[in-house]
Design goal:
Shape: elongated
Number of domains: 1
Strand content: under 5%
Largest sheet: none
Number of strands: 0
Helix content: 25-40%
Distance between the termini: 52 Å
Number of helices: 3
Length: 91
Amino acid sequence: MTTKKKMPMNKTLREQIADKCIHFSGLMDRSCKKGIVYKEVSDRSSKPYKFPCLKNTSLSGSYCEHCIFPSEERIEKEYNEIMEMLAKQLD
């Protein structure tokens, strides 16, 4: 008997903002906004690799002393900025 993996539920925009370090610049970059090289702080013992800057993988054993997840105020500010930008594009 085979078991199907459950696909994760889509996250809200606020959850997406909350789930990454404030220094995170995207894994296409070599390093974050703080200058930390992702390869040096990632846990590469499994695939996909785990990164301390992403909440869904941060409990994996990877660690970065500069990792800071956003406050509620910062989440709300970034959310509002994104929504304003989208509203301008749709006008």
